[in-house]
Amino acid sequence: MATNSVEYTEILDDKEVKIGDGAERWESDAFNLPDAAAVRGVLFLKHRGLTSSSEPAVVKINEYVVAKIAPRPELSSADRENAAQHWHTEIYSVQPAAFQPVKNHVVIKATPLDPARNAFDDFEVSNIVLFWRRER
Length: 136
Description:
By secondary structure, the protein is mainly beta. The protein has 1 helix and 11 strands. The chain starts with a strand and ends with a strand.
């Protein structure tokens, strides 16, 4: 009978990282996952400020898209300012295909606000944690 072991990797602590104008992408430090082919994961992250673009911010592990953070452009200006002040928690399931045994990276790309001006919808991320499980 197989048993499961749940472990976690803190990818980004409570430091706030801005993504957008001036930083079109953020990439984590490398992290390793032994037996990556047998790993299933759950990625937690906090974000705020993604309120103006009509396109989502893409979250990848290695080159595998694991999530898209949805913006909130439908809000009124007052509601948009209010929403930008508060942290939102996202939880994503991550399939084994996203992982490799060594040198995994989380990459989050900015979302365009006005591609003609090379402008982006600035937002912040914090507290990114990957919980993962492997069968033993």
